[in-house]
Amino acid sequence: MRRRALLGVSVAGALALAGCRTYRSSAPVATPALPSGGGPVPFTPGKIKLGAYVDLKGLSETDALGLRRRQLGRAERIVHRYYSWTDRLPTTLSYVPPDSTLMVSWRGPHYSVINGGSADQLVAAAARQLKARAQPTLLRWGWDMNRDFYAWGGPANQNDTSGYVRAWRRLREIFAKEGADNVSWVWSPNWNSHPDLAWNTAAHYYPGDEYVDWAGVSGYAEDQAPGDLFENFYDTYASTKPIMLTEVAVVDRGGASKPQWISSLRDWVKQRPAVGAVVWFDTDTHPGSTEKWRVDSTPASLAAYRAMSDDPAFRG
Length: 316
Hints:
The chain is an alpha/beta fold. The chain is 29% helix and 17% strand.
């Protein structure tokens, strides 16, 4: 499935930027106590799962993933795909390698559809579909809920963040009743709330530790260093939940900017021991965008990404 909605990035504004920034890693962060857990897709400290949403022009899913396997010398550890609310979630996907974990990003409706109970049968059917996979699966429902461009976001639901929490908990409870215990739940706000108001901060959407397996965050860099995007989120959740960068990429501003940023991301992640997964947005098919998100947009970018992939820390 191709992604069907615009990203939370200002592409036109980003492309208007000029110059080249040298990105530097901030100092290592001392995590008081590393989190445990991750659910059926467990977190292992020091072992980072490097994966991607791979969707490339002119290539099938099988061929696109095959190209990355040849370029990187290994399969993606996480294969990320997007599904609409009414889509039939997959029981099997032939292109997902046996040594990879599938992450399903599942769109949502307005909260009332879930909280009122009218979608219970749809949710139960989705749970049975993922249960039938009989493999550990990451489920990222209702991502970027703290932005104003999705039906499941707070701004589209009368600024009601509590409704999101109730919907998340109801989904998880239905999945539990259906015995879908192979699903790890990935809660994933955007690094940057919009509107940037107190009521719309990510913390107001948090369903609670008992309902979340991975704390994920998405962020697309324009002129920000990795820490500018992710440090606050890490500081907030790293002591209780394994951290996942669920969608990450950088605007290519020319020169060495993109490979430098990838190298900086590699360093930042290695210095944050609660980060257990990084998922790149590796595509050139995104509607309305001509940005070079794919990892091989230039030979230097691919080399920097390959160096990250070859790093033993990213072999989780």
